[in-house]
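User: Some background: our group keeps a shared notebook of sequences we're curious about, and every so often someone picks one and asks for a predicted structure to add to the entry. Today it's my turn. The entry only has the sequence so far, pasted here. Could you supply the structure so I can complete it?
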Amino acid sequence: MPYLNIYTKSKNACVVALEDNGIPVNLNNVVRMKVITPLFTVDSREDPNAFDWSEGYGMVSFRFGGLAHVAPGQRLARLIVYDQTSPHGVDFGTFPLNVVSSPTS
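Assistant: Of course. Here's the predicted structure to add to the notebook entry:
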């Protein structure tokens, strides 16, 4: 799987598709998402604009570039999704994440 690129100091959105056996996951009941890496965590409770799952069926946008605590570098990230029936979250596994330091203007 190629790296998902996030650019610091940018409002770019990276979109991922969540599927279960090739079927888009219903996200209508999702109440929270977290992306966890060894160096930082992005939690929709703390940064509600960092995630957008409003489409409802499998599509999630990550908008991490404007967050000061998102450190540049390549690492594996883990996605945890919480809904009313899974208060401890569902682990969607890891994906390669590349945070690229944008040049200052």
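Suggested note for the entry: The beta strands are 4-7, 14-17, 19-20, 23-24, 30-36, 41-43, 51-52, 59-62, 73-83, 86-100. DSSP finds no helices and ten strands in the chain.
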